[in-house]
Amino acid sequence: MEKTVRDASSVQSVDRALYILDLLKEHNDGLGITELAHRMDVAKSTVHRLLTSLKNQGYVRQDPLTERYLLGLKLIELGSIVTQSLEIRTIAKPILNQLVQETGETSHLVILEDGEVVYIEKIESPYTIRMYSLIGKRAPVHCTGVGKAIIAYLPEEQVRRIAAQRGLKKFTENTITSLDDLLVHLQEIKANGYSLDREEHEPGICCVAAPILNHNGEAVAGVSVSGPTMRMNEEKLAFCKDRVVFYAREISKHLGYRG
User: How far apart are the C-alpha atoms of 244 and 107, rounded to whole Å?
Assistant: First the structure.
């Protein structure tokens, strides 16, 4: 019974926090605690508690002069990620289809979010035996082809922060678990323009990936072809590498990359 009550209270708090964001969205000059409490018909102490949490996470900010609350920069960051993802998905989907037609293997489009890759588009292989994955799935960056392809273009300090935050978990015998080894490996990936995952994340699965670059030459996403090791021999990997690199550059050009 206590758990049910706690769960209901948590849901109510989330609803109220989201309502605060909706109210602030409509008032560019901000709102004070008293105004918010009146509009929400709740106690000022409740509003203050919710605002403190939202402020600590960057979703709202307080004007030091008026003491009124406004939307925070965190929302701009999230909105930018969503907009960018939608744009890349629209551009990439027909290209992913082409990759599957040419290679016969499953193609993926991913973005980097909070130190992990998130699969935002996928086109299935026509084969019965194929890689299992889902749109929305998260995966580590240090042992996936797409993850390594993206972080190879990040500043070293950012890679170190991700490693400290997420760790370098060992998934298979081939997983790189040393940060120094990973950093050397990422230099090679950047020099080559593509990355390989030879059963580093999942036994029996190989992947070829390349970064998608924006107009500033920053890796904003990654594209890959993945399949079972019994089909991904050296000849097939070489062919897939050429196609993945080619199509990653095509998507990059659509995003303004001119390198």
Answer: 9
Taking each helix axis from N to C end, the angle separating 156-166 and 179-192, rounded to the nearest 10 degrees, works out to 130
Q: Please write the tens of the pLDDT for every residue from 107-141.
A: 999 999 889 999 988 888 887 666 666 788 899 99
Calculate the average pLDDT of the chain: 88
211 pLDDT higher than 70: yes
DSSP character for 107? E
Instruction: Assign 222 to helix, strand or coil.
Output: strand
Average pLDDT of the residues in 192-215: 94
- How far are the Cα atoms of 40, 48, 59 from residue 29, in angstroms, in the given order? 18, 18, 16
Compute the distance between CA of residue 197 and CA of residue 235 in angstroms, rounded to an integer: 15
CA distance 64 to 61: 9
For residue 224, what pLDDT band results from cuts at 50, 70 and 90?
very high
Ramachandran quadrant class, 104 (left: phi over 0; alpha: psi -120 to 50; beta: rest): left
The strand pair at 69-71 and 106-113 is best described as unpaired
Cβ count near 93 (within 10 Å):
15
In order of 28, 31, 79, 203, the CA distances from 61 in angstroms are: 12, 11, 17, 47
Tell whether pTM > 0.70. Answer: no
Name the nearest CA neighbour of 146 among 97, 103, 111.
111
How far apart CA 106 and CA 97 sit, in angstroms, is: 9
